[in-house]
Request: fold
Amino acid sequence: MSRRRSLHLAAGLLLVAVVVGGVLLSYLWLPFAPDDTSGGRLAPPGGDHLLGTDKLGRDLFTQLLIGGRIAIGTALGAVTVGGVLGVSFGLVAGFATRWLDDAAAVLLDILIAFPTLLLAMLIVAGAGASLATAVIAIGLAMAAVVARLTRVLVKQILARDYITAARVAGISWPRIVVSHVLPNIAPTVSVNLALQAGLAVLAEASLSYLGLGTPPPNASWGRMLYEAQATVLVAPVAALAPGIALVALVIGVNLTADGLRDFTDPRRSR
Amino acid sequence: MILEARNIGFAYRSGAAALTGVSLAIEPGRNVALVGESGAGKTTLLRILLGLAQPSTGELWYAGSPLARPRMRDYRRSVQAVFQDPYSSLDPRHRIGRIVAEPLRGLGLGVDQSRVAAALDAVGLPADAAGRYPHEFSGGQRQRIAIARAIVGNPRLLLADEPVSALDLTTRVRIVDLLASLCAERDLTIMLVSHDLGVVAELCQHTAVLEHGRLVEQGDTDRVLGAPSHPYTRKLIESVPRLP
Amino acid sequence: MSLLTVDGLTVRNGTGTALVDDVSFSVAPGDRTGLIGESGSGKSLTALAVLGLLPPGLTASGSILLDGADMIRAPRGHGQVAAIVFQEPLTALDPLMTAGRQIAAPIRRFRGLRGAALRSAVAEALAEVHLTDADRIARSYPHQLSGGQRQRVAIAMAIACRPKLLIADEPTTALDVTVQAEILDLLDRIVTTRGTALLFITHDLPVAAKVVRDTHVMRHGRIVESGPILDLVSHPQHEYTRTLVDSARRFDAALKRTGRDS
Reply:
């Protein structure tokens, strides 16, 4: 069981490392300037242009690296927004009793019933398309899921005798949260956040594909897919490259999340 | 008198009574058993005695006056607890040293590693246990850790909620022996919540029988278990399985 | 011929550690046999192996013949030969099914009863475990029943198909002491009137002494001593058995002392 898990973790980390490595590389070196169209339109892969050029003559590999920045940025941004809001709200709901708790549970169920993409589209429609709006929208949708999970976990932990023991030992509620509740919900919540990060990357790509995410000229992978659509038969690499990058990152994040489960427990060394 | 419950009543929000008119006095050196079956109100009474729940009626008297919020820290320094399930009562992510030191930290007694070591020693655990995690210990050893946490601040009263009923028979004997020796050596009094009358007879001088939220009988353990006056007490005693 | 013959049973986990080590015993029809041991003794794993119900990751070797069927090499449905009652009835019962339907399921499957015949068989099963107000109980879900009622329902399910062997794994450990006494009486009566063989698994020597005739004491996966329970209790041979008996006697004696002086 844990051998399978550690294989998952290794494969996942490798995939994530390739994408993150590419993003870090992009800050130090790019094969071409992002707006350099000197290579001519729809150049085939090989030669100066590793993956060829797009229909405006921009280098595809350069675009792909820059798209990676957006993907990773979205994942980190959305997880931060969703994690902070979700855990805070879930903690409050976990401690709440009776009607307040019921109200919180119903509110979260309604929010979760909204598809992430629909919620994000509504927010983008109101606030205008930009990377920041997309990240906040995705983060808000994520917060509802994280809050619901946190609420259930908090209730489970609060029922444990070590919480009662801490109260009898004179530990205040805020310190019980910091020293007992958060450390015990952290493994499950962080695995869930990692899974959500994968979904966030997909959601941003979908929004960009629909023209609701990162506005041009920034090359989000979703936007690259959209732009490659018209020329997919003449230049399949322009569609394949962002598609493969997207799938690799999402699978990598998911495998990492799955593999992490085993490595967040003091009992693992058994 | 360490602690006295005067006419304690507790009703759920629905109005159903969990406890009615419970009066119980705990004197130094006289261990008290609270005997009863599930649903009798033992846990509710224990939560009230631990200051975790407020009684609907009646009051707790501690050190000569009714217990009030501002005296809670003082009260907790004197009254500590051990729980039934040693798997649920130790935080799996804390090392034993930190678990045992928790009352020192929470009650402003000063986190002093020598006191932690002394408490571990008193319950028969090696000093190097402090650096390990709960999952490395058996059920009986975990219960020793929980007892070490309870006595680290030298309380006068230990409220023990079914402390041995989750343990194997041979382990049960050792933990009961440990509790008895702690009473003798540390000027400690125990209130034991238990349905195991053998353990009660072994450890407690006073026995109170709780049925449906009322104390139906209380007095010297020898008298209550030896010559029970209430039919429910008699039924309890007859139900105890014995060796042929 | 015996109903159950366990010969050289060894159960190993994934790393090859023997959790049950070369255990042999047999149960004849109508026998009342105890497996006594503390946590980690391998007593519950032995019971699961007998029913071919070992959790994944554990492998059994040796031989287990249950009514002629080899439960290690060719485990087949044991439903009609043997049935088991567990410690915590709440986990053994389906929370979304009424007690009546849970008892009906094995009767329909193994005895092929339908309609009115099925209903009367369920009523009979409930009456046999002395559940008064059987109609209400049949319509109740597990969470609406008390611990003792739930265990009675679990026993009714187990005996509904008239098994030749009833395995009870710590059936009273989670119950109050007065309810425990009632359930032990009930098990005693059922195996007596039906002639069902009983394999009773417990850590509690006095409880075993109330229902069991022959017993095997297990420790660290091995049987350390076997014999009639009365002999075992009065003249324990193995040091571990002596410790067990002494522990039980301690509390017995303490209880007996009460009332002496007053």
Chains C and A do not touch (no CB pair under 8 Å).
